[in-house]
Specification:
The chain has about 260 residues and is an alpha/beta fold. Helices cover about 45% and strands about 25% of the residues.
Length: about 260
């Protein structure tokens, strides 16, 4: 009888320990899920036709990848927030930010005085510039000095478009074709619809690297510029988080790893 009672007590003790252990595991898991659920989520707008900064990965269900994507994800991990991505046309990004559809713009956006009237930019995260490119078989245009009376092709809403507008207002060029994506621009100068394109230098270099013999750069010192991420005017808390996260990933080597991956 005593032996049976002892065995019964031992069995109850084991069951109790298992029950406590099970509760502990569930509590730890719940705590982790709760922590993740409490992390703020920000919607990031991007135009995914601007490699290597953001573009669709054809080998992985058109998942949006690129330099900007990896950098924002690294900043989010450093600052403890989550992001979701929203595909928008480039010229729709600032209106979407102002209307509250998105919280952040990460889309190879050049910091300009005109844009700073509408959004707040982070510290620059990359130095870039504008390049003039022509079809690979075009020998008539050797530099910006040879574009008198020519037709420019640019991405609508870009700083390349702003530069073309300036050239047209000065009477240097006769017309401008505005298109939504870099691939459209390249096709336009290939088929002779336009004579040259003005676009961001790193993007043009990336296109040439992946598509040799299609276009060539004839002038890469048209204009110096820097990219920044953008938030709504007055959103100081989010702006400070992005700047702090950017500084941290630059300091710990993560930024250099992302740079090496895409450039």
């Amino acid at each position: 009888m005593k032996k049976s009672l002892s065995l019964l007590l031992i069995g109850l003790l084991i069951l109790g320990l298992v029950a406590v252990s099970g509760c502990t595991d569930k509590a730890a898991t719940a705590g982790t899920d709760e922590t993740e659920s409490q992390m703020p989520v920000y919607v990031v707008g991007t135009e995914p036709y601007f490699p290597p900064f953001q573009y669709a990965d054809e080998n992985n269900n058109n998942e949006i990848i690129g330099f900007d994507i990896d950098l924002i994800n690294a900043i989010a991990a450093d600052q403890g927030f989550q992001v979701t991505w929203k595909d928008l046309g480039f010229d729709a990004l600032i209106p979407a930010l102002q209307s509250g559809q998105i919280d952040i713009i990460a889309s190879g956006m050049t910091i300009t005085e005109a844009r700073e009237e509408s959004v707040d930019f982070t510290n620059p995260y990359i130095n870039a510039g504008l390049a003039l490119a022509v079809a690979a078989n075009n020998n008539q245009i050797q530099s910006i000095d040879d574009i008198q009376g020519k037709v420019a092709v640019v991405q609508q809403g870009s700083t390349g478009a702003a530069k073309a507008d300036e050239l047209k207002s000065e009477g240097v060029i006769t017309d401008i074709i505005y298109l939504p994506h870099v691939s459209d621009i390249v096709m336009s100068i290939q088929n002779g619809r336009g004579d040259f394109m003005i676009n961001d230098l790193p993007v043009t270099n990336a296109f040439i690297s992946h598509n040799p013999g299609v276009i060539k750069i004839v002038d890469d010192k048209i204009q110096s510029e820097s990219y920044g991420f953008a938030v709504r005017n007055g959103n100081t808390e989010l702006l400070n988080m992005l700047n702090e996260g950017l500084a941290n990933v630059q300091a710990d080597g993560t930024y250099d790893q992302i740079m090496d991956k895409y450039f």
